[in-house]
Amino acid sequence: MKSSNVMTALVDIFISPSKAFNGLKEAKGWSFVAFILLAGILAASMFAFYNKADPQFLIDQQVAAASVDATIAEQKMIRQSMEQTIDMQVWFAIFGGIIGLAVINALMAGYYLFVSKQDPEANYGYGAWYGFGIWTMMPMIISSLGLLILVLTASTDQISQSLFNYASINQLLIGLEIGHPFYTLLESLNIFSIWGIFIAAIGLKSWTNFTFNKALLFAALPSIVIYGIWTVIALV
User: Fold this and answer.
1) DSSP E strand stretches across the chain
2) Which positions ≥6 away from 121 have C-beta within 8 Å?
C-alpha cells in the first residue's frame, strides 16, 4: 500500500511510514511541499520564542553558557557582543535553522545514495535520496509544534533557551547542569531524532531489499559515529 497524495503522505509518515515512502517513489513535488511545511513550522516556533522571550533574560542565559570558564573581562566582552546582536538573533535562528536542515540533508542524501549501492536493484539518484531525507526529518514538525505550544502557553516572558531542547534525553531523564562534559551531548540527543532514525530505517527497507535490521543499522550509523566521537571527546 502507498499514500495516494502528499496530504495523506504527511499523515502516513507518522502512523504508517512505509505507505508514505512507497508513494514517494513515484511522487513529483511531494518532498518540496514537505520541506516548506517543515521550514514554515520551524520558523513559526522560532519567531514565537524570540518574540515573547525577555531579551535581557536571554542574554543572561547566553553569557552564563558561553563563559563557564571565562574571566570577568571576558564575560563582559561576551555580554557586549551579545547585546549588539540580540535584535538579530531571531533571524539568525530562523534562517540558520532552515539552511542547516538543507545542508545536513544534502550530506545525508549522499550517505543514503552510498549505502543503497549495496542493493543492485535500488536505482534511485541523488535527488530522490534528498527528497527521502526530508521525510525522515518529519518528526521535527511535531517537535516545533511542541515548542510553539510551550511558548504560547508560558505564563512569563523569562523563557529559558533550554526550552528548545524540551524533549532531550538530558531534560527528560538525566538532568545534567551546564558545564558538565556530557551536558551538550545529551541536550542534543532527543526523542524526535531517535524517532527520525526509525522512520529512516522503515524508508530504507521500503526503497531497498534490506532487512529491517540492516536498514536500522544504516539509518542509525551516522548518529552512532557522531555521538561515539562526541562521547570520546567529552571523556578526554
Assistant:
1) none
2) 208, 209
Side-chain-facing half-sphere of 71: CA atoms under 13 Å: 2
* Residue 87 neighbours by CB distance under 10 Å: 10
Number of neighbouring beta carbons within 10 Å of residue 156: 9
| Per-residue pLDDT reduced to its tens digit, 144-187 | 999 999 999 999 988 988 899 999 999 999 999 888 889 989 99
Q: Is 220 exposed, middle or buried (0-12, 13-18, 19+ CB in 10 A)?
A: middle
d(CA 111, CA 130): 10
What is d(CA 140, CA 156) in angstroms, rounded to the nearest whole number? 25
pLDDT at 62: 76
Residue 133 has pLDDT above 80, yes or no: yes
| pTM of the entire predicted model | 0.90
Residue 216: φ, ψ to 5°:
-65, -40
